């Protein structure tokens, strides 16, 4: 069979051409490249808010999610003139890369045209890529950890955040864990944010020692526990954004949820087929995140109290 003819999508004031629209990207469900584009259109404000002005690495699947995955840091060739970039530096290799900088929903749809399924933004923005404005709490279950344990740890994290006066915005990871994002004032570099995240992880571990660990090396971790992964705040470390589809055959979505949903949520139910209706009913549950900036100073005080240090970033 020949390739299906391209289609053009009107995205606000721009037009994006989608080639091979009928290519199946998610074989367990049957959704196509065009279905993926329509999904991102349906959550437009949410995905743009999650990505806006951040350097963004793209996970591309040119043959669908069962084929080869391409980790794309540099903007793919052939971008329209309206697609913007932000330059970031990689000290370990002393190299630079011009990464996608989303400012418009058409940027997201063009990335889909370039076979992007997952969007992985930095936790800093173009104005100063060295000063994060987002602290990411990654509740990462070991391979033998039940999801009920992740739920319990999330509620402990909520308790600690409330005592700190910080507002957490939870979401599913699109896999087996949960994430909580906290908007922070961009006053510190990556090392301080990572140290603050470690102090928070230790406090959660103190309160839930039977559920949590913070062991550095993966090989030394208990597979039945939840690792509060403070390393996700390391420079150039990224995780799937809110509303990002994940590169699995089931087309699960990293989906914002309410705190009161944690007791019942099943991440497997949140897919490109179900999230658009949910979004239409609830809107973007992370819509208020930019109005909730918090200072990490209390956590840095905890880190100093506990004499916590993190290794130098490379």
Automatic annotation (TrEMBL):
Species lineage: Bacteria, Bacillati, Actinomycetota, Actinomycetes, Pseudonocardiales
Gene Ontology molecular function terms on file: ligase activity
Protein name: DNA ligase D
Domain DNA ligase D polymerase: 32-286
Alphabetic keyword roster: Ligase
Superkingdom of origin organism: Bacteria
Keyword Ligase belongs to the record: yes
PANTHER family: ATP-DEPENDENT DNA LIGASE (PTHR42705:SF3), BIFUNCTIONAL NON-HOMOLOGOUS END JOINING PROTEIN LIGD (PTHR42705)
Pfam families referenced in this protein's UniProt entry, alphabetically: LigD_Prim-Pol
Keyword Thylakoid in annotation: no
């Amino acid at each position: 069979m020949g390739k299906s003819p391209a289609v053009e999508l009107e995205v606000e004031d721009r037009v994006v051409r989608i080639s091979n629209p009928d290519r199946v990207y998610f074989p367990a469900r049957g959704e196509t490249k065009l279905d993926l584009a329509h999904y991102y259109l349906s959550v437009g404000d949410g995905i743009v808010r999650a990505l806006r002005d951040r350097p963004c690495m793209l996970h591309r699947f040119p043959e669908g999610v069962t084929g080869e995955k391409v980790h794309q840091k540099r903007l793919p060739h052939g971008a329209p003139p309206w697609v913007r970039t932000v330059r970031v530096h990689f000290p370990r290799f002393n190299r630079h890369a011009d990464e996608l900088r989303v400012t418009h929903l058409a940027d997201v749809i063009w990335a889909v045209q370039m076979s992007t399924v997952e969007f992985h933004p930095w936790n800093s923005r173009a104005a100063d890529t060295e000063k994060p404005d987002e602290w990411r709490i990654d509740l990462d279950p070991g391979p033998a950890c039940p999801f009920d344990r992740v739920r319990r740890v999330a509620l402990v994290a909520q308790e600690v955040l409330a005592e700190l006066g910080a507002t957490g915005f939870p979401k599913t990871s699109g896999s087996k864990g949960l994430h909580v994002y906290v908007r922070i004032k961009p006053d510190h570099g990556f090392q301080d944010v990572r140290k603050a995240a470690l102090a928070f992880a230790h406090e959660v571990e103190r309160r839930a020692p039977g559920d949590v660990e913070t062991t550095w090396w993966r090989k030394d971790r208990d597979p039945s526990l939840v690792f509060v992964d403070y390393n996700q705040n390391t420079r150039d470390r990224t995780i799937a954004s809110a509303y990002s589809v994940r590169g699995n055959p089931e087309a699960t979505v990293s989906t914002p949820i309410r705190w009161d949903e944690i007791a019942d949520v099943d991440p497997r139910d949140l897919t490109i087929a179900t999230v658009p209706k949910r979004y239409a009913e609830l809107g973007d549950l992370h819509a208020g995140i930019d109005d909730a900036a918090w200072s990490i100073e209390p956590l840095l005080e905890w880190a100093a109290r506990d004499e916590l240090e993190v290794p130098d970033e490379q």
